[in-house]
Design a protein that fits this description.
Blueprint (H helix, E strand, L loop, with lengths): L30 E12 L2 H9 L7 H14 L1 H4 L8 E11 L4 E12 L4 H19 L7 E11 L6 E2 L7
Antiparallel strand pairs: 1-3, 1-4, 2-3, 4-5
């Protein structure tokens, strides 16, 4: 596991003169890459119950959020200016109820074989899935909050494997 605390890092999207630039990945080896991100939508218990019962006015909240997350992962390079377009081989979105929040926990996994990672695609998928949940249920609960969107794990490429700490996952 690579440790970012031990290695000096530079901002790769900033050129020598301070200008924004897209990183040149043309010399990088295409490898299998995986990223997992998560987030959650906190809401009133009654809102969660309504969503789980399938009684939201706009329809299937979880199904729509899952599709929105997949579409967002595929459109990441259109949304994030310096992000490379990647050929995704997998996008999966898991949305599960969390009674303790109360709310919905969202998890995305993205995969590709290419010269650059898919972390941004996983993070974008989670973010848009959470935003879709909010949009579809806002008529009954404008007080919902989107929380803890973060990268959980990445594998592949020169930097190898990275996992976030367990305490940050809570």
């Amino acid at each position: 596991m690579a440790s970012s605390a031990d290695e000096p890092r530079t901002l790769t999207h900033i050129g020598a003169e301070g200008e924004a630039r897209m990183v040149d990945v043309s010399e990088k080896e295409a490898t299998s890459r995986v990223a997992i991100a998560e987030g959650r939508v906190r809401m009133a218990a009654a809102t969660l119950a309504l969503i789980l019962a399938g009684d939201a006015k706009k329809g299937d909240v979880i199904g729509a959020a899952r599709i929105a997350g997949i579409l967002a992962a595929k459109k990441t390079a259109d949304l994030i200016p310096l992000c490379h377009p990647v050929s995704l081989s997998k996008v999966s979105i898991d949305i599960s109820p969390d009674e303790a929040l109360p709310g919905l926990a969202v998890r995305a996994e993205t995969r590709c074989i290419g010269p650059t990672g898919v972390e941004m695609e996983a993070l974008t998928a989670v973010s848009v899935a959470c935003l879709t949940i909010y949009d579809m249920a806002k008529a009954i609960d404008r007080g919902m909050s989107i929380e803890a969107v973060r990268l959980v794990e990445k594998r592949g490429g020169k930097s190898g494997e990275w996992r976030g700490s367990e305490e940050k996952r809570r």
